[in-house]
Amino acid sequence: MHPLRRLSFWAAVMLGALILLPTLWYYIGGDQALYAYVAWAWQVEGRPPFIGEIPGMYLAHYLVFSLFGAEPFSIRLADYLLQVLNLGLVAWFASRLEPRGRPALAGIISAILYATYYLGLNFGNTVFKDGFVLTPLLLACLILTMNSKRWFWLKACMVGLLLGAAFIFKQTYALAGAAFALLYLAREWRNKSSWGRIVGIEFMLFIFALIPLAWCLFEMRKWGQMTMFLEVYRDYMKQYYLTMGGGYLSSIKYFDYVAFQLFYRSQVLWLGMMFFILSQLDRQKWKEQAENQLKTVFGAMLLVCGLSVFIQAKGLEYHNIPLAGFAAILAGPAFAGIAGLFAEKA
């Protein structure tokens, strides 16, 4: 990496980390307290995790308490560090899109947009599954878009594990697994790989994506809770995704719902994302950039995150966190490009 680009990246990370500092003093809400209590009972008293859902979030809190101690501040500290990692990845990806030769500015703007968005969620909408889901998704995108061909099979296995981790946090992100399978298929097809290689990659992705879920089910079986878990989880998912969501969406128009989600908070972020998307609609530009892997990956992730919000259909702000992360990646280059246009005319 060029020294100036490296300096701008760390400047973006430090600025975003500074913006996020107040989150360390946010209160712990009701849902966060539930996660913490179950993790504490699991760690201290050896009780099984909450059997109503796959215990990804409880496992995360268990690890946090093991590292930093079973204190409320430990939860906020871990979330702060995780979001700094997220905004660092957001800034890195934004700089790689290089709008009009202004990668440094794009990364800084994207980091600021994501940090201010997350800060604005306040205590009631932070330390949720959706904020934790964004990290494995971004890391999977990072591995997928690495140009080096070394350790190819290992990287495919790592992507599978990361997608499996996203799934045990929130099951709607099984969509991400399907998206990555298609992205790998498209890349290997473009490279004219053999069918044996393509099938091998897809198989490794699938098997390693199952490992986190298999571990959770193994733990449930070890505690003798498997039958109860399957029954409760089935009923919980049926109520959560069909009864409540369907009732909510049936009472409002779909486009009104989308507009509310996008413009209720952080309008600049969503407008920046839209500016970037509109800038890619030029037919000649699209023809030249149709094989641009970064844009393809981020477009797929925006679709996955948007579908996740739609499926849940609760109107809860924290459901938008992964969508906001990928939107920030696109918004930074859009605003940097606009700044470049003004600079040229000045």
SSE layout and pairing:
Layout: H1 3-20, H2 30-45, H3 56-68, H4 72-97, H5 103-120, H6 129-144, H7 152-169, H8 174-190, H9 195-222, H10 226-250, H11 254-263, H12 267-279, H13 283-289, H14 293-312, H15 321-345
Helix pairs in contact: 1-4, 1-5, 2-3, 4-5, 4-6, 4-15, 5-15, 6-7, 7-9, 8-9, 8-14, 12-15, 14-15
Describe, in plain words, how this protein is organized in 3D:
The chain is mostly helical and 346 residues long. It has one domain. The chain has helices at residues 3-20, 30-45, 56-68, 72-97, 103-120, 129-144, 152-169, 174-190, 195-222, 226-250, 254-263, 267-279, 283-289, 293-312, 321-345.
Question: Can I get a quick summary?
Answer:
This protein has 15 helices and no strands. It is mainly alpha-helical.
Helix coverage percent of residues? over 70%
Largest sheet: none
Instruction: Determine the structural class based on helices, strands and strand pairing.
Output: mainly alpha
The strand count comes to 0
Q: Low-confidence spans: pLDDT under 50, at least 5 residues? A: none
Give the count of helical stretches: 15
N-to-C order of helices and strands: HHHHHHHHHHHHHHH
- Write down the oligomeric state: single chain
Radius of gyration equals 21 Å
Strand content: under 5%
Amino- and carboxy-terminal Cα gap: 30 Å
Shape: globular
Number of domains: 1
Mean pLDDT: 85
Features:
single chain, 346 residues, mainly alpha, 15 helices, 78% helix
